[in-house]
Specification:
This protein is 41% helix and 17% strand. The chain contains 15 helices and 15 strands. It has a 7-stranded parallel sheet with strand order 3-2-1-4-5-8-9, with helices on both faces. A 6-stranded parallel sheet has the order 12-11-10-13-14-15, sandwiched between helices. Strands 6-7 form a two-stranded antiparallel ribbon. The protein starts with a strand and ends with a helix.
Length: 371
Amino acid sequence: MRVLHIVTGLASGGAERQLQLLLRHLPAHQHCEVVALTNPGTVAAALRAEGVTVHHLAMRGNRDVGALPRLVRLIRSGRYDLVHTHLYRAGLYGRLAARLAGVRAVVATEHSLHAGVIEGRPVTRGVKGLYLAAERLGTTTVAVSRQVAQTLHAWGVPPGRVELIPNGIDTARYRRPDSDRAAARHRLRADLGLPQTSWVVGGVGRLVPGKRFHVLLEALADLDPAARLVLVGEGSERAALERRAVELGVRDRLVLTGERDDVPDLLAALDVLAAPSTEETFGLGVLEGLAAGLPVRHSACPALDELPPTAAPQARRIPSEAAAYTAALRELRHLNDHSTEPLPRPPAVGHYDIVRVAADLGALYDRLAPA
């Protein structure tokens, strides 16, 4: 079976990293290629290094309709049995191009949809209308959480057209002997300029307003001066966060790593993962923190909301306010002041193992486009 994944871009965001993970674990008889409409960034380079064919459509913007015939030709020449789109622009152009190219099995994953927000942008009447028109051109829309599925149903997408397949995490990357974890912790703290004895709070995700990382900066200002904050990711809010850190007098206690592909190692350098975002459709960073054996304090994680509390006892949901994070982090500091040992891996991590998730997606492909 030949499968083409169409994605808006391949910078290092959650949806892009999720695609990379899935391609590593889909069944061997499903040969996958990828086309990025624009911005073939770090994930494109990583996919090519892993032997995946990545095409770049060089689309110039949302209204570059000239990209459509190029995409149709690419799909026809590749003789794909199934097309799978990711993110809003790719969903619009990709589903239409697949239909024009004669592909009968067309899947779209909805990674980031709320009632009034899609991929961090407000949903206008025009955006919603285009989305629903494109959705009808597809075969199945995959929702990454029940929250996303419920939003799709509320928009009028029939339940029979929606398949719930959550995001996954590569749990194998977080399994390591204690000695290896300790070595990674020491090395990365040195590389990042962190004192080996400091207490380190971390956040993982794009530096955009919806992640609300300013909440952690404000909490940091009220924590012990020995505390540090590490933010792993890149985005439009980087300069604003730096300015806010200067205003709060904590710039020398803030580390911005930029985009990284060694997140499991970086998590070993932390003492707690904090996630103040209120706009999550899954909460991948929270699951990664749990897989790394960290205590987690978060403000939204639909992935955990769908499981019983016993599935992740070391995670606690708190309001996305500086005072709440200050209090929660102080409590954790008191409880774990001298401990560097990872916590036991909770059941939630196994539930979202990428091997299991990829098998479910592969089974969907086989149902829609049998070999």
